[in-house]
Amino acid sequence: MGEEKKVVYGFAAVLTLAIPYAILVLISWARGGMPSGYEPFLRISTESYYFWQTFFTVPVGLIGWILFAGSAQLLCGKLGGQGSFEENLAVLGFPFVLMLPFSWLPEFMGVFAPHPWGTAISSGPVTAIRVSISVIWLGAVSVLALKQAQRLSTSRASLAAIVSLIPTIGLQMTYLH
């Protein structure tokens, strides 16, 4: 929190998730991989989805980070928070990095693992577990981050994190396949 360029750390943290993910989906597309799962809001064909996802992963990740930090700042202000938007940006980039193993596991397995493993990791039950762990992890680390940045109680930081995650997750769901 005392760093002069603290927002750069949050920015780098988001890019640590977004850039490898974008590269992985491009490799997957080049190798003939296709996403599985629910039909996304964006009507892009399954065959070319990973190609296009390569280009919108980084911008959507950055927009989601800013939306999350901004929503949290508005809520924290109403809940007695004492931190700044910049402090939120600094700390709220890191919860996304911790999602890396869970969010790109199907694509990684599809590119680098034999067929049965790549298919199994994308199955409905495994995806539900993977997404649940990812969201719980994101929420828990975000609560700790907001508690520190905004100097809030755990209950108030929890409320701010949960409510602020709603538009952020909504944004992510519009483009995830």
Question: How would you describe the overall organization of this protein?
Answer:
There is one protein chain. By secondary structure, the protein is mainly alpha-helical. The longest helix is centred in the middle third of the chain and has 33 residues. The N and C termini lie far apart (36 Å). The mean pLDDT is 83.
Task: Put the structure in a nutshell.
This protein is mostly helical and 177 residues long.
Key features of this structure:
mainly alpha, single chain, 177 residues, 9 helices
Helix content: over 70%
Shape descriptor reads elongated
Strands, count: 0
Overall structural domain count: 1
* SSE arrangement, N to C: HHHHHHHHH
Radius of gyration: 17 Å
Largest sheet: none
Q: Are there runs of 5+ residues with pLDDT below 50, and where?
A: none
Strand content: under 5%
The first-to-last residue Cα distance is: 36 Å
* Chain-averaged pLDDT: 83
Structural class: mainly alpha
Q: Mind sketching the topology for me?
A:
Blueprint: H1 6-30, H2 46-78, H3 85-92, H4 94-97, H5 100-103, H6 105-112, H7 115-121, H8 124-150, H9 154-175
Helix pairs in contact: 1-2, 1-3, 1-6, 2-3, 2-9, 3-8, 6-7, 8-9
